[in-house]
Amino acid sequence: MAHPRWQEARTVLLYHSLPDEPDTHAFVRQWAREKRILLPVVVGDDLELRVYTDDGSLRAGAFHIAEPTGKAFTDYAAIDLAIVPGVAFDREGNRLGRGKGYYDRLLPRLKAYKIGLCFPFQLVESIPAEAHDVRMDEIICGGR
Questions:
Q1: Beta-carbon neighbour count of residue 74 at 10 Å?
Q2: Does residue 144 surpass a pLDDT of 80?
Q3: Residue 64 — pLDDT band, cuts 50, 70, 90?
Q4: Which positions ≥6 away from 18 have C-beta within 8 Å?
């Protein structure tokens, strides 16, 4: 919460965490009163973004992830900060996802500052990257 990018951001892409990811549930709830929080929704082979309003607007979506209902948010230029999950990250900002390519297709559309959020054991020496891969601007590791 003390991170300058977080302090400045008005519209933030977050994610509703799975059990093996740093828990974002309380964080999403807490900050939705002060910032516009966007959560991804799996639609076919892509991620659609929707505004989180409260837990009552969530439904179980693909992969049993809680997803907000409502209309799609498409003003990508308005997103100030993207906080992104991953299976692993390296110190160069490379990210390894779960293999479906959802974030690989979404992230190139965003001009936002990108922070990868992970546990310390998920920060590895090196992750193979290709030219189309979008690097994180920063990695933050939390405790477990």
A1: 10
A2: no
A3: confident
A4: 63, 65, 85
Residue 87 forms part of a structural domain:
yes
Distance (Å, rounded) from C-alpha 120 to C-alpha 139? 10
Q: Which residue has the tokens 């990508």?
A: 76
CATH code, domain carrying 50: 3.40.50.10420
Taking only the tens place, the pLDDT of each residue in 117-130 is 999 999 999 999 98
**23 within a domain of the structure (yes/no):** yes
Angstrom distance (rounded) from CA 29 to CA 96: 27
Backbone phi and psi for residue 52, each to the nearest 5 degrees, phi listed first: -80, 130
The model's pTM is 0.91
Domain with 71, as residue range(s), is 4-124
Please, what sign has the CA dihedral across residues 79, 82, 126, 98? negative
